[in-house]
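Feature request disguised as a bug report, sorry. It would help if multi-protein outputs had a clear separator. Right now it looks like this:
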Amino acid sequence: MSKIYVGNLPFSVTEDSLRTLFSQHGVVESVALINDRDTGQPRGFGFVEMPRTDAARAIQGLNGQDMGGRALKVNEAQDKPRGGGSQRRW
């Protein structure tokens, strides 16, 4: 299973519309759109999980594709660094 980062999404996108777009390239296991924790408004990015071979095909086919007047940024999701707070360097 691969987790795909999808950025530069139009704020009007829904989980269903993103699932439909990615399902053209294979089996979609899950879709998650990220909202701002304080306002609840969309942040313009999300994640899609697909089997590894389908994910590679989706990344290849959808990166840079126009959706609602915006060029999608599609790539393999990177793990978020662990740890909280700011990273201070003395």
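(second protein starts here, but nothing in the output says so)
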Amino acid sequence: MGGVTIYEFGALVSQDSGAEESEELRKVPFSVFEWLEAQALAATDTGTHAWLRLTQKRGQRAIQVTSFVGVIRAPDGYQIEVLPKVGKLTEGGDVQARQLLIEMLRCLGGFRHIQTDSAKLAATRMPLLEVFIEAFLGSVEQIVKRGLRSDYSALQDNMFALHGKLQMAAHLRQNLCRRDRFFAEFDDFSPDRAENRLLHAALRQVLSWTGSQTNERLARELCFVFVDVPISERPSVDLLRVRLDRGMAHYSDALAWARLILEHESPLTGTGGHRSPSLLVPMEAVFEAFVAKHLKRQLSSPFHLKPQVKTFSLVRHLEQNWFRLKPDFLVKASGSNCLVLDTKWKLLDIKKKSNGTDKYGLSQVDFYQLYAYGQSYLDGHGDIVLVYPKTEAFSQALPVFEFPKSNGLRLWVLPFCLQQRVLILPPSGACGTLDTLFAEFA
């Protein structure tokens, strides 16, 4: 099967190229490179948000991964693991980056069900795909221990003895000359229900994906338990039939995994689809969800965090609101807006002088965006915040940015510590209203 690990914005070249491998450049088999190239071209043609892009490295054709992280699985089974770029800046390398990503993914809606032993993960250096498969198998194993849920389903059959309700029209049509048969409809109590069919299909799928002997053995054992349950032939239809009613709550995690595994919109399956994949997620969304979860704990009372607000628009045209202003977070208290925050998954560097062309790596577009948020949500007065991941090159708040023509609007650029899960504030007494909004955090 084989595979390779790469960080965000790293590049992939064909194995027969003359380029030398490095942390930023990895080689993949020629057939895999051709498939990746086709995926990148298709994404370009359709104008969708590309998880791959065409480029050149050292004079060679190359494919660059973007800010999506997770697992790409080629049709032949070759796996490309994409990790967060912050992993390049830590001594722990791939292992620490993988652990960090899993912790962050738990804050994202579709991955809240990930349950993994971090110590075991570090010891085995388990790839992400195997982590996902192990989590899925563990959730199915818990269902098996409690017993598969059965349900009544309506069946029709031509039987020797009457059982259920006789279907007169069909009975006369089929048994006019056979008085020993009865065509009837009856209820059958069996494990053949949508939820179990989906799990069986997902088990068969991961059995073909896994390269781990432990995962393969457990998957085979679980498939044996589901031997009397047919495999879902139309997962999209069965997903609509899922009912997590009384006595079915313990199915929720396993079915959440099954949904990710069986939805065929992902490069993980190697079957087309250039939209945001199921097991390859945008790191911007992961970072935003991670900050949202932990920032709530850092706020003082009575302040609370409201995500994804969209109260105002930039302009009105022909009695319609155009260009919604949607900051990532709004801090409110007693119905009043107190602070606007926006997350940016980008690595800043304070060594890049503020009077130089790089300006710490900050984007002018982001400043325009935050200025518009401040004018609309704070009436042009107060504090707005850009949140970036903390690194050694950006470990403390930047000096405040002031808008000369505004009515006291100030912009802060603050680091968020991924390990300690806290927002790093400016020195006490120098950050104005931020002191009152956030509690002291050890």
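Even a blank line would do. Unrelated, but nice: The chain has three domains: 3-147+195-281, 151-190, 299-437.
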